[in-house]
Design goal:
Belongs to the peroxidase family. Ascorbate peroxidase subfamily. Belongs to the peroxidase family. Classical plant (class III) peroxidase subfamily. There is one protein chain. By secondary structure, the protein is mainly α. The longest helix has 21 residues. The protein starts with a helix and ends in a 24-residue tail after the last helix.
């Protein structure tokens, strides 16, 4: 018996040493996945996002939106980055993405740098996840340890991308869509808080401007009517603190100043209004947002020998 216990202790010691030496087991996400294979990954992404923000204050919001649009279609597998070819249709031309999803240049720049530092090691899917976190942090939002170890897909789904939650959806529709992904109402309302920064095109809420919608503050409507001279004009999602990641989004909803129907409905639905009120507290919002981002980042991930590590983010590797 004593000999068996000793052998077990020796095995545990060996496994612990091996994990420390080689890093996390391939096939699972870990915050230390690249500790040995590419230790510069996090600093490289942070530098690129910081530089992007110098020229474009909306860069953080764009990168966060890209992460959501990636993970909600097929999972967090960088399928949203794939370009169309003569024989392949990606997700970039889907209605929710076409001419509105941006930030690809930041991801491509990071990928090019990492291919020099640690070739064929870091997935595009992980770069998108890290960049989304850094975009939030650099805008004044919370931080969290990003789990990495994802691999990139070799497929995309235009049809799924066309069914992403839309700006006119009710709270009930959004709840069902999130539940289908294994996300709950807390996750829905917290992740919707991403609309505390960034912009939206006037055509996404034009119908609210020409009606007597009681869920929109009259003064706010008047301001928007002045700003929306054309349907393609862009306005801040949060008119109060448009480039800061804070709780103003939820305060706006309480005052009937949510820009999109999908936002304002969260304040009027009995299923979500309590959470809107709760998340006006920064600690409550930040705490739930980080938890929800981790859950979102685990959706449908490819690990181990699944998928591939793309050489460039916009195209699937081709065997020679």
């Amino acid at each position: 018996m004593a000999g068996a216990c000793q052998r077990l202790r020796s095995l545990i010691t060996l496994l612990t040493f091996t994990t420390l030496l080689l890093g996390p087991v391939r096939g699972q996400l870990s915050t230390s996945f690249y500790s040995n294979s590419c230790p510069s990954v996090f600093s490289t992404v942070r530098s690129a996002v910081s530089n992007a923000l110098q020229s474009d204050p909306r860069a953080g919001a764009k990168l966060l939106r890209m992460f959501f649009h990636d993970c909600f279609v097929q999972g967090c597998d960088a399928s949203v980055l794939l370009d169309d070819t003569a024989t392949f249709r990606g997700e970039k031309t889907a209605a929710p993405n076409a001419n509105s999803l941006r930030g690809f240049n930041v991801i491509n720049s990071v990928k090019a740098s990492l291919e020099i530092a640690c070739p064929r090691t870091v997935s595009c899917a992980d770069i998108v996840a890290i960049a989304a976190r850094d975009g939030v942090v650099l805008a004044g939002g919370p931080t969290w340890e990003v789990e990495v170890g994802r691999r990139d897909s070799t497929t995309a789904s235009l049809s799924e991308a066309n069914n992403l939650p839309g700006p006119s959806w009710t709270a009930a529709q959004q709840i069902r869509a999130f539940q289908a992904k294994g996300l709950n109402t807390n996750d829905l309302v917290a992740l919707s808080g991403a609309h505390t920064f960034g912009k939206a095109s006037c055509n996404l809420f034009q119908s609210r401007l020409s009606s007597s919608d009681p869920s929109m503050d009259a003064t706010f409507r008047s301001t928007l009517q002045s700003s929306c001279g054309t349907a393609s004009a862009m306005v801040d999602l949060d008119q109060g603190t448009p480039v800061t990641f804070d709780t103003q989004y939820y305060t706006n909803l309480q005052m009937n100043r949510g820009l999109l129907t999908s936002d304002q409905t969260l304040a009027t639905s009995s299923q979500t209004s309590r959470l809107v009120n709760t998340f006006t507290s920064q600690s409550a919002f930040f705490n739930q947002f980080t938890k929800s981002m981790l859950k979102l980042g685990r959706l449908g991930v490819l690990t181990g020998n699944q998928g591939q590590i793309r050489n460039i983010c916009g195209a699937v590797n081709r065997e020679v």
